[in-house]
Hints:
This protein is of the alpha/beta class. It has ten helices and 13 strands. The protein has a single domain (2-181, 221-259, 299-311), classed as NAD(P)-binding Rossmann-like Domain (Rossmann fold, 3-Layer(aba) Sandwich).
Amino acid sequence: MTILVTGVAGFIGMQVADRLLAQGHAVVGIDNMNDYYSVSLKRDRIAALQAAHGGLFTFHELDFADMDAMRAALHDQIIESIVHLGAQAGVRYSLINPDAYVRANLVGHVNILELARERRVRHLVYASSSSVYGGNDILPFRVEDRADHPISLYAATKRADELMSETYAHLFRIPMTGLRFFTVYGPWGRPDMAMWIFTSKILAGQPIPVFNHGRMQRDFTYIDDIVTGVVACLERPPADDGAAKPGGSRAPHRLYNIGNNRPEELMHLIAVLEDALGRKADIDFQPMQPGDVHSTYADISAIAQDIGFAPATAIESGVPRFVDWYRSYHD
């Protein structure tokens, strides 16, 4: 099977592509290689895929918000399924550059929906986010919960993606699965996320910024568990049978939380990271940041029942693996 993976130079995209290629699928990857964070890291991810998988992997550097460019690049390639992981990420960045989110997460998402309609793909799996739950204070977050009050533009665009996907699934009967990711970490991670920031600063002897004075919880989810869940979902498209799916749709469209189902206190994560690094952190406690939430906690009962998803990596084993990779990569 030939699978299109968007955001293939990104953290999750690269590793989903790697798993699919290892299974023998041909992967066509696209990414605009923007400079939101280190472009050299993105190029290293692409180089790793090319070195490991050769001709099975095809890469196009393009912006999927440019429909003409995407059609031109893909015109002679058969696309049977799509894993749409490309997006403008980051809650705080959406406060200062909203245009990037409108272009990538709204215009770009509609373009992928149109491509899926034109190609009549077997299945479109796309990235949503736990951010859609906004300020919900009933834990754990369930896909049945209301998600009408986002507290960042990033979250609003991800919820809009879910609604647009529901419309296309209803109108054109395209099988789709939206995945609400919960705080993913691990090797090849993103430099703008806490695990990388903390590691970099602790090793450099610099203070680490800890928001809300450390009173935060996150459902930290190791990348290998996430990839296993994404690939398992891709292999099982939702049926067009009129039955209600997770998230409430009766079209062939379902929504799943994909997380570790085990929220961790931020200060405990820092303690585990200190042990893995063999160094103590100098902590700079700061107030809550606009757009952030106090806690995330995924109810994964739907994806566990339907797909058999069962995260297996606690932070006590996942964090040292990230630290080992980080040291190796920078050495």
